[in-house]
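idk why but the lab printer keeps eating my pages so im just putting this in chat instead. protein + iron/sulfur cluster:
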Amino acid sequence: MLIQRPPAYHRWLYPQGLFFGFYTTMKHFTLNLLRLRKMPTISYPEQKRIRSDCFKGKHILTKKLDGSIRCTACMLCQTACPAECIKITASEHDNPKVEKFPISFQIDLLRCVMCGYCEEACPVDAIRMGKEYEWADFAESNFIMDLDHLSNRPSLKGGVISKLPT
Ligand code: SF4
Ligand code: SF4
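predcted complex ->
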């Protein structure tokens, strides 16, 4: 059976929409071409954006003034972590003034949601969220950061001293 449909007048507007679409594209293309310095894009990776102080990137374990790790293995960050991606193994220290220290500290970056709760939970500024965000890799195992990587990777240039360094 042949169904009689009402005439679709809106189809007549289609070429106008096409024209205005092209017009807008060409307008922005020309304006961006003439005002190159005001372009919102950058030539990454040669140029990099400056990250704000509250940016949450790759974690850092800070150090004491003597170069040892600041972490007291209190497990607060591990407990606060919603992604359960922090694993700490604590041990007693030879120095009686130091109660505990971590013999192993691992963060699985593939599970981490970059929430910063670990940084907030730490009572001694032993863990911080840094500004690094480029960690693409092929092997899954390379996303598990250990104690050495967290505190001594080359980009940290010798390590970061805690705000409570003793
Ligand atoms: S940033 Fe959040 S998810 Fe990542 S390790 Fe810290 S607490 Fe866990
Ligand atoms: S990083 Fe801070 S919160 Fe986490 S175990 Fe060490 S001292 Fe405790």
